[in-house]
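User: My instructor asked us to take a sequence, write out its structure as tokens, and then describe one feature of it. I'm not sure where to start. Here is the sequence I was given:
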Amino acid sequence: MRSTLLPTLLLLLLSTGCADSQTTPLGPDRGPIGKADNVGSCLDACDGPALVGTCWCDDLCESFGDCCTDKAEICDATSEFESFETFRGGFCPPDIDCSASIELLSDGTLRVDRMADPGGPVHTAVVGETDLADAIAVLTAPDLLTVLDGADPACPAPTDIFESMTLHDQNGEHRTSVTFCSDSAIDAARNVLNALADKYIITTDFESFRVFRGGFCPPDIDCTSSVELSADGTLRVDRFGEPGGAIHTATVNDFDLANAIEVLTDSDLVAILDGSEPPCSPPTDVFESMQLVDGDGEHRVGVTFCSGPEIDAARAVLDDLTEAYLP
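Assistant: Let's start with the prediction itself. The structure tokens for your sequence are:
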């Protein structure tokens, strides 16, 4: 009786060899995906497979036929976009700052120079990937590009004040004056940049916030500590157990500063700091206080052993900054 074992083994080997020859270094067999099966998004997944789904976002997806439907919007637009800036100004006395700008870069860096801030720093932050992709879609819209590439300003411009918009992409610079101009593309560009500035660079009358902790100790033992954050980003830390030690300092970046200020100026926390009595019964041998200084003055109260969402959040944000900047 003729054995079928050898042909079977040969068939298996051939099948395995074919499968290996079709496998790409990037993963299992890839090929065209039917419209109904093309599931996934390129959000946070450029240069690889979708985080959830069946489609891809790398440079090979077009040849394999498995690109996610939003690849062009999220990945390709980001690679072509370099920067967009809106600049506003006018003629003013030397001691008055009448210029302002907002600039967004392809890596998510947001730079804001505020009006009436002579000699002030350019505020910076890093925009999240989703917000960046949404902004780039607006700032590279075909209708806006047509306006920026126009031979003349988009509308008659005055001579004493001005506003310009500039887009840099792989094709070079696209720039025009848009002073007092209004249409859907121009307004959308202004709105998206202003929204990013409002979200990521917070303007408040915040001056400082300080947490002080201490207790009664012998003179040769240091039982006090403090953490203070100032509006210019300076972080000052006085550690426990360092009698006569130096105050440790660091400068917090604008993004972390904005997030901290949002927590430390929360209206519910300010109400606690303005209370006539501590929010809980304090002991007499140890103490902790929180103090906010802003445009309205000083807000201060003892919070020894007190707990609540606003108080806990304030402690946490200062502890996180200390760990990050002065470990």
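For the description part of your assignment, you could build on this observation: DSSP finds nine helices and twelve strands in the chain. Try explaining in your own words what that tells you about the chain.
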